Amino acid sequence: MSAVTTGAAPRVALVSGASRGLGLAVAERLLAAGWSVGTFSRSSTDELDKVLENWPDTFSWTPGDVAKDDMRQHVRTLQERFGPVDALVNNAGVLHQELFLTMPEQRIDELLAVNLAGPARLAQACARQMSVRGRGVILNVSSINSLRGFRGVAAYAAAKAGLDGLTRSLARELGPAGIRVNSLVPGYFETAMTSQVTDENRVRITRRTPLGRLGTTDEIARVATFLLSDEAAFITGQTITVDGGLTC
């Protein structure tokens, strides 16, 4: 039995920003387990198009921007296609590296909007629907930058730390409504976002990681789908770090 099989099929998940990388990997694992999955992102990709071809009846994509759109409309669109949302994966985000003293205010606003304000609004839209039904799961994808200080990512780190705070507060507030809320904190793993890391920094990260390597997208996705499953039914309000020991 798959780790995300729950006995209540089909179930519906909204995975933001699943056009590539971790979001798409989580979506594929859910689809393989019998879920219906919807996503939105600013643009499509060849990888996304292939998954849409493979799962035409249970996977949907719409263009959208987590920082600008009405999140309620994305939830309504998914409900009209597949039914009420059972699980949200707040995956959409953007990393920008720049020294804080020279970073334009507009860039700070953009990073906070994409990585914190937008996900908070999406969580609210989904939680309102979930609370009526008395069940649901919200998984916020954070970053080890929320746990450790690194140069050049101050605004991004602040947003992700805020997302972890949102997780803990929502777990308290929404638990009585049957809604679990957790944060997944990936370390450095092979993805388009970490392709921005210089070779020098990559060597430094690998050396400081007890397991001696970067993670893989599938390793992170497996933890994400576990946290969405009924096997994690008593886990809420937690920050689950998957980083090969880098922050231990």
Automatic annotation (TrEMBL):
Entries under Gene3D superfamilies matching the protein: NAD(P)-binding Rossmann-like Domain
The Ketoreductase domain, residue ranges: 11-187
One Pfam match: adh_short_C2
SUPFAM superfamilies: NAD(P)-binding Rossmann-fold domains
Gene Ontology BP annotations: monocarboxylic acid metabolic process
A molecular function (GO) term: oxidoreductase activity
Keyword Phosphoprotein in annotation: no
Keywords: Oxidoreductase
Family named by the database record: Belongs to the short-chain dehydrogenases/reductases (SDR) family.
Name of this chain's protein: Beta-ketoacyl-ACP reductase
